[in-house]
Specification:
elongated; alpha+beta; four-stranded antiparallel beta sheet; single chain
């Protein structure tokens, strides 16, 4: 239902007017389009990947979270997700390829350090990929973060820094 201030089209309006037009908050009016959600396999795969990355980012401790907000800005998490998902998941695929090359003991250490327990992305590979993206972005942008270079033997150290709440 449209919410109108003063006579229609003279002041402001927001919301849907029947099934014909939609008044947006920025003052624009557009044609009503029935929302579509086809839920294809590809679409669901992308949504699940995004959900798991977001879960990993929610584990960030206050120390690293503050550094990322300061260095990357208010949309720091969108930057990290964008880094991982850009160019048809190019960075995520590269980080997961590095993770796959680890020895089985090293993979187990990363899997044990990753408390998200993802279903779409390899267990441990998600933490490695997110931490690697943060580390690489910080280097490129000249931002100082207290995060050890994610590598085969740094699972415990990196995971501890990822979730650290102690200043």
């Amino acid at each position: 239902m449209a919410k109108v201030t003063a006579p229609l089209m003279s002041m402001s309006a927001s919301g849907q007017f029947g099934k014909t037009m939609v008044f947006q908050k920025n003052g624009n009016v557009r044609k009503y389009v029935k929302p579509a959600n086809p839920q294809t396999d590809d679409q669901m795969a992308v949504r699940n990947r995004l959900k798991e990355i977001q879960k990993e980012l929610k584990l960030l401790g206050t120390v690293l979270r503050t550094q990322l907000k300061t260095g990357f800005g208010a949309r720091w998490n969108s930057m990290i997700i964008g880094e991982l998902m850009a160019d048809d998941n190019a960075a995520l695929t590269a980080y997961l390829a590095e993770f796959t090359a680890f020895q089985s003991g090293e993979k187990t250490a990363w899997a044990g350090a990753d408390t998200v327990n993802p279903t779409v992305i390899a267990d441990g590979g998600l933490l490695y990929s997110c931490a690697s993206a943060v580390y690489d972005m910080a280097l490129r942008l000249g931002v100082t973060v207290t995060l050890t270079l994610p590598a085969a033997g740094t699972a415990t150290t990196t995971a501890g820094e990822w979730t650290d709440n102690t200043p």
